Amino acid sequence: xxxxxxxxxxxxxxxxxxxxxKRGYEIRILTRPGERRPAGxxxxxxxxxxxxxxxxxxxxxxxxxxxxxINLAGASIFSRWNGETKRIIRESRIQTTRHLVEAIAMRExxxxxxxxxxxxxxxxxxxxxxxxxxxxxxxxxxxSVAAEWEKEALEAERFGARVVLCRFGIVLGKGGGAIQQMxxxxxxxxxxxxxxGEQWFSWIHxxxxxxxxxxxxxxxxxxxxxxxxxxQPVRNHELTESLAKALGKxxxxxxxxxxxxxxxxxxxxxxxxxxxxxxxERLIEAGFDFSFAEIGEAVKDIVTG
Length: 305
What we know:
This protein is α/β, with parallel strands linked by helices. Helices cover 39% and strands 18% of the residues. It has eleven helices and 13 strands.
């Protein structure tokens, strides 16, 4: 099976590409001209196509040869937001997805699958409420972006494609992501809770995320939204305590006050201070078996594995 992938050189995409290649899939990754390619990513079953996913171009004709599209592209949300960063966050997702759907339209009637990334931020902020795929979109900035992003992806259904909306929790893995941003703080003895520490944190171990993609590729009956997150979301203090334990570092400092985070990060601080309590109901019902459902085991594997 031939897979066309955007975002395949990033923290999640590069590892997913390697994993899928090991499972026997042919992977073609879209890269911008001059973009750095992670060492060891090229191989017998991984190749690259140059092009800008936010722009129409010859890459779309190349992409239309693939049976499966995996869309992981999108600018990072981890920054202080202003009008320009919000525009980049939104357009990087919407334009890329729109142009992928144009490529899929060239395959009308030929059996295509689109696994399009979204995020649990789709739901907005709901306190302690447990959220599954039936809940509707929130109204904050990230929720509105996610809703629009998914709407663009679902346009591919007009051309006969199966569309799966992979709503990611925070991805925990080795060599990047949230955990690798937190580890240096603990190593310098300055790791601490954020705000009250009671806000929910929906997460996924990278190993489970790779397995979810294979699971979705192998089960053509699954479409629509799928929460790609552990069945055991945790509060911020549970994550922080688990990481401190895995690193052998005590929590010495008081929590970072909410007002300090808002001064530093502006509107983006709400993403860290509120969060969502998400449950992967569709994966559980479909029989997916998580290797890392519990945060302590997941963090230990990442830190010491």
